[in-house]
Amino acid sequence: QVQLVESGGGLVQPGGSLRLSCAASGFSFSSYAMSWYRRAPGKERELVANIGSAGGIRNYADSMKGRVTISRDNAKNTVFLQMNSLKPEDTAVYYCNAARQLGWLGYWGQGTQVTVSS
Fold it and tell me: Which residues contact 17 (CB under 8 A, 6 or more apart)?
């Protein structure tokens, strides 16, 4: 059974940092590209960052470039999203996605809420 479980969200003040984690099970994690998406209230889902199966390729949305870093630990079947200098407009539910190739969509997690507010 495929599972993606996100964690690490919460309430943070503007300028703060959060590290999101997504723990995967039930599939060959090291063979899958991983992505982080977010959906803000009233907005469409958007890609935040993705990473190739071996970790050598990483892509970032322009809106968050320079403020986020995606990484993965294939030994622990986990992908991370380090977010710094957070802004109120970063408030959203953040989801991880596992797909066979970068740019594809596949399995989804349940999401973790990130709220940036003073």
Answer: 82, 83, 84, 85, 86
Do 10 and 18 meet the contact criterion of CB atoms below 8 Å apart?
yes
β-partners of residue 35 are: 50, 97
pLDDT tens readout for residues 17-33: 999 999 999 999 999 99
What are 65-73's contacts with CB under 8 Å, separation 24+? Answer: 70/34, 70/36, 72/34
Number of continuous H segments (helices) and E segments (strands) in the chain? 0, 11
On the question of pLDDT at 63 being above 90, the answer is: no
Alpha-carbon dihedral sign for residues 83, 8, 76, 46: negative
Is residue 115 scored above 90 in pLDDT? yes
> CB of 96 within 8 A of CB of 4?
yes
